[in-house]
Amino acid sequence: MVESLAVFLQSIRWQDIVDILLNSYILYRVYVLFRGTAVWRVLVGISLLLLGKNIAEFLGLIITSWAIQGITAAAALIIIVVFRNEIRSVLQVRNLRAFFWGSPQREMRGTIGIVADAAFELARKKTGAIIVLQSKDDLADFIRNGIAWQGLISREMLMSIFWNGNPVHDGAAIIVGDRVTTVGGVLPLSSRSDLPSFFGTRHRAAAGLAEQTDALVVIVSEERGEVSVAKGDQIERVSGWERLAELLEDHLLGLDEHRQPRRRGKHELRLAALASLVTVTVLWFSFTRSGDTLISIDVPLEFTNRNKAIDIIDASASTVHLQLSGSGTLLKSVQPEQVRVQIDLGEATVGLNRLSILPGQVSLPPGVYLKKVEPAVLEVTLDELEKKPVAVQVDWAGKLPESLIMVTADSAPAKIDVICGKHTLEKISTLYTEKVPLEGITQSGELRAHVVLPPASIKFASDAYDTVTVRYQVRPRNPVQ
């Protein structure tokens, strides 16, 4: 068990760690940006469908697996089409730092003070107003006749929007984040019968929107100069700036109605980060370590760290047979040059060495894992290198013409220095040139011929020694008396 764990830990690459951390953070950011929205609930549903598909495949339920796969593909399209407004509102951020790092709600803190200041200033001047602060629900289907604005929120802007001389002062101003996105919007009227009789059209419109969405609506009464807040099925008259700021903070910063500490939100985010890490780790492990596919390949051996004074005389194998496992997709993309087997000869000695081929000596692409090596043990014979002069003899082939006789033939140089293992050199006394045909010789002369090295481990001491000059003399054959 301990040995298997050690092998597993050694097989993890830095690319694997980066892969897990990067995708965990992406999943965590998706949760932070979409939590509480219908998009997030659908994403959770799709994740459960994918889990069900894997279970169905494991159990061999072919039709069920196929059906779930089709539903999942359709659900992905549904998210893009049906929830395009929610997705757009999340992606249309002004601050990239908030998108990649911070929490979107942090941008709301400036909005709280601006809305509270403007509301009580409008109330003091008895200027009617409806200010809608959008939350998770998209309001496009509930607001009619609005005029797109997309202006950065400020106290002066809100005051000018609801100024009596402004053509859009009777409609609602919609605030998303730190911008006024729509002005002059017409809200749906509430049909409740329990609303106070002195509530006018503004209050009934605010109640109608609050009942159907999760938005918070600030109402300023033109007749009484009062500020009220509608959320859900409740409408509260706000007595002061502090209370309005508190209600806005509860709404924009995501605190619940019981005013629980913000550390609950931080605790929730920590749990989300941990859940993202665990989820991606499990997915990575199931994808890369599932072993659902096996392939076998032959890889040539590479010897490293060999002492320059020692030569390899013999090896029991020149290639090894590897059995690899991993995802079928990854294994199909494996190229031969990505797999290497390197045998370290740094501690090998002269003579016979038995070397085990360990997993650490096999280099594999990320996500591909070694199951078996054949042979598991390699026998390598090493010998000390020596330099020795060896005589060179011309290897004649064929026959001279009948009219000629070879008188003398020698090579220059007569001996060539070669380097090889000590025991191999003891068995070598002569080196031969390549085949030199006799048929084409008609007179004395010279030619160049390559020297042939029999064993692959023998090397020339110098590149200049790979050819020799053959000088030969011939004379006419004496006629038979």
Topology of helices and strands:
Elements: H1 2-11, H2 14-34, H3 38-59, H4 62-82, H5 84-91, H6 96-100, H7 109-124, E1 129-133, E2 147-152, H8 155-161, E3 172-176, E4 179-185, H9 201-212, E5 216-220, E6 227-231, E7 234-238, H10 241-252, H11 263-288, E8 293-304, E9 310-315, E10 319-326, H12 328-332, E11 340-344, E12 351-356, E13 362-363, E14 368-374, E15 377-397, E16 404-412, E17 415-421, H13 422-425, E18 430-437, E19 445-452, E20 459-460, E21 467-476
Parallel strand pairs: 1-3, 8-11, 15-18
Antiparallel strand pairs: 1-5, 2-4, 3-4, 5-6, 6-7, 8-10, 9-15, 10-14, 11-13, 12-15, 15-17, 16-21, 17-20, 18-19, 19-21
What's this, in brief?
The chain has 481 residues and is of the alpha+beta class. The protein has helices at residues 2-11, 14-34, 38-59, 62-82, 84-91, 96-100, 109-124, 155-161, 201-212, 241-252, 263-288, 328-332, 422-425; strands at 129-133, 147-152, 172-176, 179-185, 216-220, 227-231, 234-238, 293-304, 310-315, 319-326, 340-344, 351-356, 362-363, 368-374, 377-397, 404-412, 415-421, 430-437, 445-452, 459-460, 467-476.
Number of strands: 21
Distance between the termini: 95 Å
Name the helicity range: 25-40%
Any idea what the radius of gyration is?
43 Å
Total number of distinct structural domains:
4
CATH architecture of the largest domain: 3-Layer(aba) Sandwich
CATH homologous superfamily designation of the largest domain: DNA integrity scanning protein, DisA, N-terminal domain
Classification by helices and strands = alpha+beta
CATH topology of the largest domain: YojJ-like (1
